[in-house]
Amino acid sequence: MSESASQLPVAIAGTGSYVPERVLTNSDLEIMVETSDEWITTRTGIKERRIAAEDEFTSHMAVKASRKALEQAGLDPSDLELIIVATITPNTLTPATACYVQHDLGAHKAVAFDISAACSGFLYAMKLAERMISGGTCKNALILGAEKLSAFVNWDDRSTCVLFGDGAGAAVLKEAEPGGGQILATDTGTDGSQTDLLNIPGGGSACPITLENADQRLSTLAMVGTDVFKQAVTRMRDSANSVIERSGLRPEDIKLLIPHQANLRIIEAVTKRIEIPEDRVFVNLHKYGNTSAAACAIALDESHRAGKFGPGDHIVLVAFGAGLTWASAAIRW
Ligand SMILES: CC(C)(COP(=O)(O)OP(=O)(O)OC[C@H]1O[C@@H](n2cnc3c(N)ncnc32)[C@H](O)[C@@H]1OP(=O)(O)O)[C@@H](O)C(=O)NCCC(=O)NCCS
Description:
Blueprint: E1 10-18, E2 22-25, H1 26-32, H2 37-44, E3 48-51, H3 58-73, E4 82-86, H4 97-105, E5 111-115, H5 121-134, E6 140-148, H6 158-161, E7 166-175, E8 182-190, E9 198-199, E10 222-223, H7 225-246, E11 254-259, H8 264-274, H9 285-288, H10 293-305, E12 314-321, E13 325-332
Parallel strand pairs: 4-5, 4-6, 11-12
Antiparallel strand pairs: 1-7, 2-3, 6-7, 8-13, 9-10, 12-13
The site of coenzyme A (COA) has 21 residues, from helix 2, helix 6, helix 7 and strand 12.
């Protein structure tokens, strides 16, 4: 792919999402660990989550979401030039999940790779793809957030297992039509001094899983929930405010805020601080829990298909996750 110096406006041409069939409710979890529907609902807002089948991998969910986004964009997979999958639960450590997606879609022309930015991954991918199209590196891109978190959850740890779920969301980006929708501003940030707050400690080169440590469940999610909560509120507020300001918008211009779907209390605290009314905030975490990189992508597709915004409306997406990472995007649809 060749570079050119042009700076073209970029728009979202289609969205898609997929969640697995199996529903795991809070009542189901009451049988698995010492918890209650009341505790989970009041602390998080989550009522149920989806769990992928054993033979249903991250790439399978990504492909299903992709097909819907491509269909809506009116783009044939063979014309795709770039595929970025944001995931922390890849099919395999290598090759990238994006390679499986490229093959299954028959998108032979597309360069395909993964990025790992946890719950902010979909918006990191959006920024990257927007910059690549805008700079003339490629004409279009398929970006995905896709996760099979159920494979990396310790189902005996009540403090984490109630929070997460599986699913995938996709968006097709391409050069904007004159006078049409456009990605107006993006923001990404990282604070690598707090890697201990939320991580999967084992299974990487720092701590391979061995016969000796296999029973410690080191390849499952570990989190210091209270500290993550505080950081999430501040970082999401600052990131969302930055894209709103840089787009020349005011909070009252935002038709819909689509925040990362981790915890209803985090969403309420962020919303209050950005001064956007509650009825302009999209929430679906009660159905899916926290699907990490997939959360904003699924929420974008669901809210779009539900007609929560339309051509000319301004929306803001904002996310926060392990790393620590945060990201946002302001879009005129
Ligand atoms: C995880 C979270 C819901 C916990 O809520 P909290 O109010 O901070 O709860 P605490 O961790 O202080 O735990 C309070 C008590 O509930 C208990 N508890 C934890 N999980 C429980 C569960 N599923 N059911 C019942 N009790 C539970 C704890 O053991 C603790 O008991 P103790 O006081 O006897 O020690 C909250 O910290 C949170 O949402 N953090 C952000 C998580 C997140 O969104 N992460 C992803 C960001 S991308």
